[in-house]
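User: Hello! I'm new to structural biology and keep hearing that structure can be predicted from sequence alone. Could you demonstrate with SDR family oxidoreductase? Please show me the input and the output so I can see what each looks like.

Assistant: Of course. The first part below is the input, the amino acid sequence of SDR family oxidoreductase. The second part is the output, the predicted structure written as tokens.
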Amino acid sequence: MHVFVTGGTGTIGSAVVAELFRNGHTVLALVRSDASALAVKDAGAEALRGEIADLDVLRAGAARSDGVISLAFGRSYGDADALAQAVAEEGAALAALGEELVGSDRPIVTVSGTPWVPGRPSTEADPLPTDGPVGGRGRSVNALLELASRGVRATAVRMPRTVHNEGKGGFAGLLAEAARRSGVSGYPGDGTQRWPAVHALDAAVLFRLALESAPAGTSWHAVADEGDAVRDIATVIGRRLGLPVGPVPQETFGPFGPIFAMDQPASSVHTRDTLGWRPTHAGLLEDLENIQP
């Protein structure tokens, strides 16, 4: 396939682009800067200049493709207003991409987060939340999946709270950044809450599998670690950075505070059994050993 990829230079996107090439696909990648254009060209992809808010550019990219993988998200979401704007932009982008594919039976794979269910790991059958700080993402993904009835092979890969590579990325990466700023490797609450995680290279394989073969209207979990305790994550970060480890108010983490404080393990049993996905790379706690002081 010739695949249009948005967000193709990020932690997940760069791994997805490489995975697509390794498996015989070609890539048209949305880029917003000269540096990003050079990066995707060096990776063998064609660059299409534009931003996630440029809906006409998104439609043009989708029109030129055999399938779409939508990964782009806003560049700044350090406060509640910025996060809300990023969620709204993503929703408009998904709507534009989906409408361009109506009636074509072409695939589009989008990204969302794994849901949380009190008392147990969430599964692929659990609905996404449609309220709260990122509830808009759930509504946008649900709307895209509903296009299955209009001739779009729309699917969603639900990502865990941390997608990591070489000790960087995801919520664990945000903990490390906060630790560097504050001088304390902190965690909200008592730290026993669990976050699922996956290596970016393993996640990339699942995006390819969904693009190639997942049925329309389905959701999949890119979960390798079902749930690492946040206190354990902070402990590795603190040791690697030479910082004390301890609880901090959830407000320390801005709009992500309430999410950081939640126990949110997730399962990928159905995804593994159905699509044959098998994570093979380092788990989160092992990968965090790559953090540089």
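User: So the tokens describe the shape?

Assistant: Right, they're a compact way of writing down the 3D structure. Reading them back into a model, for example: The first strand starts at residue 2 and ends at 6.
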